[in-house]
Design the sequence.
């Protein structure tokens, strides 16, 4: 079942903490200084009741407290996401937390690369749009699959391809802690869809950890292409699955590997 935010504090907590502090301070000042003047001007009119409520000191303090609470929640959430990413050390660690933390991990990995990340609340443990990435005027829909022992099939990719057209987005990104089936690899050829397997996600996270800052776009895009089939006719000699282009994280050398890795090491 999808998740939807129903509380104001949940929405405000998605803003940076300093935005909440600024909104609280400005709103408090406006309510304390301007609301009483407004109340005097509209005395005897239908809006006098609203103006009178706004002029109450308790309302100003309530707004300030709400913004400060949202700022604390926002700061704590950002700290948790940073720690979540910084403590990942291997493929098993990608699946050591729940699916919700896996979404946060993926979001933080792309946030540190300069993307604006929106946690939509439209997805869930069973699928859907989990994140929306924005950068350079382009919008990418993201689905996160914390499937370590089960490969992500073509049905999931087809569903996201339909959402791409429905939401008029620029691209789709499907991130898994495991791998993708041969049919899924084949389906994305010629489509604005990127599949990021667990091994590729771990490599990206390790690069972000090493740099500690946002990475230039030119150094990110090759990472997003590593899971795409290099050729429909090039298959693994061991299992006949499509071969994909990969990059050695230590040397930077490009090589061809089986798309079913680590199940197959062809």
Sequence:
């Amino acid at each position: 079942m999808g998740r939807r935010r129903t509380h104001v504090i949940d929405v405000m907590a998605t803003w940076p903490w300093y935005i909440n502090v600024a909104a609280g301070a400005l709103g408090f000042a406006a309510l304390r200084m301007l609301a009483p003047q407004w109340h005097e001007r509209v005395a005897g009119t239908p809006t006098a009741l609203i103006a009178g409520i706004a002029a109450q000191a308790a309302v100003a303090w309530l707004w300030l407290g709400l913004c400060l609470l949202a700022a604390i929640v926002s700061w704590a959430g950002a700290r948790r996401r940073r720690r979540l990413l910084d403590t990942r050390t291997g493929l098993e660690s990608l699946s050591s937390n729940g699916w919700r933390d896996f979404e946060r991990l993926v979001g933080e990995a792309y946030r540190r690369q300069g993307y604006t990340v929106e946690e939509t609340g439209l997805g869930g443990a069973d699928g859907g749009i989990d994140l929306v990435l924005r950068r350079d005027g382009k919008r990418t829909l993201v689905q996160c699959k914390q499937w370590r022992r089960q490969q992500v099939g073509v049905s999931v990719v087809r569903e996201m391809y339909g959402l791409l057209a429905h939401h008029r987005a620029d691209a789709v990104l499907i991130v898994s802690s495991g791998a993708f089936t041969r049919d899924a690899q084949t389906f994305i050829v010629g489509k604005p869809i990127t599949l990021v397997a667990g091994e590729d996600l771990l490599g990206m996270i390790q690069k972000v950890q090493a740099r500690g800052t946002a990475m230039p776009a030119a150094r990110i895009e090759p990472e997003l292409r590593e899971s795409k089939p290099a050729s429909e006719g090039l298959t693994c000699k061991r299992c006949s699955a499509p071969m994909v282009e990969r990059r050695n994280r230590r040397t930077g050398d490009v090589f061809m590997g089986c798309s079913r890795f680590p199940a197959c090491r062809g």
Remarks:
- Confidence is low (pLDDT under 50) at residues 1-5, 213-232.
- Residues 8-85 form one domain.
- The CA atoms of residues 28 and 61 lie 7 Å apart.
- The first strand starts at residue 116 and ends at 119.
